[in-house]
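Hi there,

I know you've been waiting on this one. I reran it after we fixed the sequence typo, so this is the corrected version. Both the input and the resulting structure follow.
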Amino acid sequence: MNNELLPWDEEALKRLEKIPVFVRHMAKSKIEQAAKAAGESTVTVAFMDANKAKLMG
């Protein structure tokens, strides 16, 4: 998997900002990796919602 960042839509970024600062970077990285693995071109709230259980492990 490449290290290229995925774009985030505005609503997904707002949701990311609600994650506590001390884990936000790790959460962002995990969400982006999952989105890339799923073939997504943009991180969206719909993706985050559909994969919430898997992402929060």
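Quick highlight: The mean pLDDT is 91.

Best,
R. S.
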